[in-house]
Specification:
The complex is a heterotrimer of chains A (about 425), B (about 350) and C (about 350).
Chain A (H helix, E strand, L loop, with lengths): L1 H14 L7 E6 L5 H15 L4 E6 L2 H13 L6 E4 L19 H12 L12 E14 H7 L10 H15 L3 E5 L3 H10 L16 H16 L5 H4 L10 H5 L3 E7 L2 H9 L5 E5 L11 E8 L6 H12 L1 H11 L6 H6 L8 H13 L5 H5 L6 H16 L5 H19 L2
Parallel strand pairs in A: 1-2, 1-3, 5-6
Antiparallel strand pairs in A: 3-8, 4-6, 4-7, 4-8
Helix pairs in contact in A: 2-13, 5-6, 7-8, 7-17, 8-17, 17-18
Chain B lengths: L1 H7 L10 H27 L4 H4 L9 E3 L1 E2 L8 E7 L5 E10 L2 E6 L2 E9 L3 E3 L1 E3 L4 H9 L2 H32 L5 H10 L9 H10 L6 H9 L2 H11 L4 H9 L4 H12 L1 H17 L2 H6 L8 H5 L10 H32 L4
Antiparallel strand pairs in B: 1-8, 2-3, 3-4, 3-7, 4-5, 5-6
Chain C lengths: L17 H6 L1 H9 L1 H42 L2 E2 L9 E2 L3 H6 L14 H32 L6 H9 L6 H12 L4 H6 L13 H29 L3 H9 L4 H29 L3 H7 L10 H11 L5 H34 L1
Antiparallel strand pairs in C: 1-2
Helix pairs in contact in C: 3-14, 5-9, 5-11, 5-13, 6-9, 7-12, 9-11, 9-12, 11-14, 13-14
The chains are: A alpha/beta (about 425), B alpha+beta (about 350), C mainly alpha (about 350).
Chain lengths: ~425, ~350, ~350
Amino acid sequence: MILKSFLAASAMALLASTAHAGDVRIMWYSDGVEGEVFQDLINRFKAQNPGINVIVDNVAYNVIKEQLPVQLEAGNGPDIARVTSIKDLAKHWLDLRPLVANAAYWDENFGQQADWMRPDGSNQISGFMTQLTLTGGFANKTLFEQAGVPLPGPKATWEEWAAASKKVAASQQIPYPMALDRSGHRISAPNISYGANYIGADGKPAALDQGAKAYLTKFIDWAKDGTMSKDVWVSAAGQTYRAAADDFINGQVAFYYAGSWQIPNFAKKIGNNFDWVATGSPCGPAACTGLPGGAALVAVKYTKNPKEVAKVMDYLASEPVIKEFSERTLFLPAHKAVLAKGVDFKTDSPLVKDALNKFVEATKTTSDMAQKMPGWRWSDTVYGAIVTRVAQAIAGEMPTQEALTRIDADVAAKVKASGL
Amino acid sequence: MSRVTQFIFRRRGGKGWHWTDIATWVWLIGGLIIMFGPAVWLALSSFKTPAALAEFPPSILPYVSQQATVQGYDKPLTLFNATMPDGSTRVLAEVRRVGTVAQMVDPKAPAEIIKVNINQRTPVRSVSFSTENYVQPFLHFDFFRYLWNSVFVTVTATVITLVVNSMAAFALSKYEFKGRNAAMLVILATLMVPLSVILVPLYSIISTLGLFNNLWGVILPTVATPTGVFILRQYMLTIPDELIDAARMDKASEWQIYWRIVVPLTAPALAVLAIFSVVWRWNDFLWPLIVLSRRELYTLQVGLNIYSGELNVQWHFILAMTVVTMIPVVLVFIFLQRFITTGIAGTGLK
Amino acid sequence: MSQSQPATRPLAPAPKMSAASLALMPVHFIMGLADKPLRALQKAAGIGGMATFFLAPNMLIFSIFVLLPIIINIVYSLTGGTAIFLNERTFVGTDQYAHIFNCSNYLDPRSCQEDAFWTAVGNTFWFVVIQVTLLIVCSLITALILNRDLMARSFWRAVFFFPVLLSPVVVGLIWRWILQRQGLLNYILYPFGHDPVTWLSDRTVAFAAAVGVSIWAHMGFYTLILLAGLQAIPKDLYEAAEMDGTRAMRVFRRITLPLLMPNLLVVVVLALIKAVQVFDEVYVLTGGGPGTATQFLTQYIYETGFVSQPRNAGLAAAASILMGLVLVVLTLIQLGISKRNENKGKR
């Protein structure tokens, strides 16, 4: 009996690699509840289209980041995937333009981000953004109130936030006034506010300019003198991402710079412990910008069933589906019509609604430079080098000046090694 | 009673406490705490709610805030111990909190709102095991499918490992042939190449062979373990050659010698290899993660990893599923633990 | 060792096996069926040919899935670009090695262009030296204690062996939860008026934690090997020493240590190899931080080949080849040791 089922299983295991006609496999990662919401929507699609078998493979984000590129490079991979390195991998995406029911609908509603996920110079429709994100700050309003420090206004600079947060920290006995995630993407927002431009004339990375150097130097000093939480930056080596969210949730930080994606997380974990507000991005000399980003759902060109894939994509990109998905996940949608008509986020917390509205509002002050970053092929390379070296400087392994020159050298070496 | 204590604290020499006796028990009790403590804490933490997990100071046991339904309010309200201005404490339910002031009511007299500074109140909490962490993944996550895949990979890989490695070890220990030393040298040289170092080329091979998204793609690269060949060969070297010569005299075929004589005599070493193979394959993580990207093929270790997102990790689910995946290994160990020591004692490792 | 006293090992555990042998019946049947064709094979190939037959399955799998990737890796290290398949990669000669060895001062890793590699080499070296030494001391002490006349010895043995059963990821996770800011250690120290500390953000503490956790995870295995050796030392040697009134330390130095030497050597070599490969548990525990204080070679190779943007499989391969060379040296030492043991056994 056991032997029999074993033989059956081994036969099945051998067959498992062959795809059935009509199968559409979606590789999906989740930060919170979006996986369940997505599965719900897919189940509805399957009920309407019995001929198409859509299978959602939930994976860890690391699989998307580290393993999926290798699979694609080898011509494997799922039919549809939710990815963040959408520009780097653009050559693997399927052009949906000839396959979707109404290409004009896609151009109209997703046109603004379409360039983030297609090879340079094409008019390909690769997919759409499942969510837009924007970096921005959060303040622990209760701590500010207890300390009797007024919240800095909408045009406040990074210095003003630092000064106010330090007062709060001193009076409330919390370990860190401010925290910023260990992430090149996060730290690039203030860099750009300080006037940084990473993109050289030839489209390849330029050396760090005065703007970037000014903020990075300030940031390293802040981390060393305790204005910024050092813990999160020294908690890993290399370009590993680490969030400082738990410190904010525990009320250990007065001002936390992260982004819109933290809102559902805060709603769940902070609960009624204290009041928090989204503050938008503090200003630098050049701008008050956050950095946009997000995850996209794209079709992979190695699929055996392009027609079915297009059908699934058409369904998922349709206005009611996008609207429902955003409302239930508390994600900012990327769909023009949905945005224009307004989204009724499903939450009973006024804090969450205010925060989401604040981020929608903050998109207006996003600078042109920041808008370009998600669609630039080398942004991850620059982010990676910045995180690695800045963290080393904070840990006291090298002086700030050396870290800055090493960032340039690292980026140059990586560009050269990639052979592009 | 005294006989029991005597039995427990059996000492060197018998009379009095020699310093080594004290050192022994300090080491053993310390070891017990350090070795088991962390795992026990992990198990207890797996029953905490996400909010409780992020909290400092942490509690040993999982707690939740108590709630009460108060007349005039739709939703249950959280209960607090509030210190009154006169120094007395009362149990109050919080209606809402505005800044640093909490508006509270007495559940028995819900009409009157009492304003309390938030530093003057602490939540009323009770121990509660958040079984949600276990139930939710079982509902959303195809647990039994993953379990079956894990069992299939572990058992198949172990059986193949035992057969293939023991055959090779037999050839390398009981035959003289050209290239024997070369084969042994190559096997030993690769003994220490860690998998994480050859991931990319191995992936290109698996992909070429069409073993991508296939359980055999996980099984095959792991079965020809150099360690297994090494351990078994060392053990087989201790089997006297006379036994084999005698069997040949009796017209036994080489296969029979292997199967009827050498394998039974190598049983303790095979048991050790079997146990290690089970532990290794059950815990394999990095390689299955790369090869298996379809959910019907996930092993448990890959399955529990889906709770690591880009920006957030759902620790409560990961902890709960980690505890679940630990159970089978611990069971195998409890049942087979006597083989482990006797087996290692007998292998060429001595 | 064992050859000198083969009788102490139960050769045929026959009486206990009756239930097991019943279960093995079908297996015996299948293996019996294989005998006939194999006899024919033996007739054709001769006894020497049978050696090849026994070796073949293992070597075939081994060649495809272990040896071939290593060879491909050597070729990888001579190529560049981001492609996966060899035919799509561009040949760059020894550029990758030149990049690694591009240093202005060979004694200072910071002066190298690829400083991350050399820092990892330095970290790995110190990790190996410290971890292996402490690991062996701890395992030896534990083995000596478990060798005493204890109550419930198998329970205590299990206590120390238990972490060996856990996956490296779980080991790293458990300890991260203990050492982090909101962790158990701070909670234990809290009542003593100790402010919460982020233990892993201190270079020395993080390194010590990496060493400690890897000892915690692997100690049980080596303890058992040493315990097996201790139990094989004839009791009468100790009795004789006690009659002579020899001091305990002297007994340990003159009897225990020399007779335990073969086991100790095996433990040293296995522990060395394992320590050079250190990765998973430390990666989960510290991520290599703070700065690069706990970034080790395997992590460097994995991150260069898989994580960094753009991925650089060529550079990762070159680094792994250099690491492989070191490992081969260690293997040769091990080979020498086991050879010497074999010769001793024969004498």
